[in-house]
Every structure is written in C-alpha cells, then in structure tokens.
Amino acid sequence: MKLAEALMIRADLQRRVDQLRSRIVANARFQEGEEPSEDAAALIVEVSALLDRIESLVVAVNLTNAATRIGDGRTMTAALAHRETLRSRHSVLTSAANAAHGADGGYRQMRSELRQISALPVAELRRRADDTARDLRELDVQIQRTNWEVDLREEDA
Predict the structure, then answer these.
(1) Using one digit for the tens of pLDDT, what is the confidence trace for 141-156?
(2) How far apart are the first and last CA of the chain?
(3) How far apart, in whole angstroms, are the C-alpha atoms of residue 7 and residue 57?
(4) CA proximity to 138, closest of 91, 74, 60, 58
(5) Structural domains counted in the chain
(6) 3 state DSSP class of 62
(7) What are phi and psi of 142, to 5 degrees?
(8) What global pTM score does this model have?
(9) Is residue 10 part of a domain?
(10) Which domain holds residue 74?
C-alpha cells in the first residue's frame, strides 16, 4: 500500500469515528418505555475497533515518514513540520498585511478625523506572503509526489 492510500484510509476511518460518535450520543439516553434506535454500547465497540486501526495506521505512517526522504533530502517528517511552519507564516503575513492596510484603506470621512497610519510595510508583507505561498505550494507538491511513490511500512501497519 502506498503512503497516500494509508492517509486516505486513515481520513475515512476518522470520518467514520466521527459519525459513530454522533450516533452514540444520540442513543446514549432514551425515554422510559421507548427503545433507542441503535445500541450505543455496540457502537462504542465498533468505534474502539476503528480507533485501534487508526492507531496502527498512524504508527505505520509516522515510521514511514521518519524513514522517507523527499526530493530535497529532508525526511518526510521534517518536510511536514516545515509545511506547517510555512502555513502559519503565510497566515501571519497575510493577516498583518490586511490589518496594516486597514478595512477602509486609511480613508477619512471628515478632515477633523485622525488619519490611520500603517505601522507595517503592506507591499513588502504581501510580497513575503506571496513568496511563502509559492514555497508552500512547491513543498506540498514534493510531499504529495512522495506520498504516491513510497510504500507504507506494512510490517508496522
């Protein structure tokens, strides 16, 4: 199984756990004289089995990521950490540029109103955000390519 397939299976299992959680909550209590539509205890057993499968997939994925090198020589684990850093950096730069620009762009309705002045260089922040977004896209392509090329360490799954 390819790493990307394992990641898709893990996401599907997690969605299934979330659906079962809702069904458990809906059937955890019922009115006297009525019957619940589903057996909440059986659903908990089903969730437990799914969570065990997710755990084994996460272990296999993490071990595979630690042993796999992407195109630039970094481990997949390091690349994933860097991708999260790039996402956070892009978000901060974009938020800062938007705040510095201001919703009204510094427009005054009356001359007597004090003008708002940007404390940050908006154009520079937007350029840095664009550069970060490009780096993020390029790294994400490397990660996705590797996910479809690398086999999951089956002995760990």
Answers:
(1) 999 999 999 999 876 4
(2) 10
(3) 8
(4) 74
(5) 1
(6) helix
(7) -60, -45
(8) 0.81
(9) yes
(10) 3-104+117-156
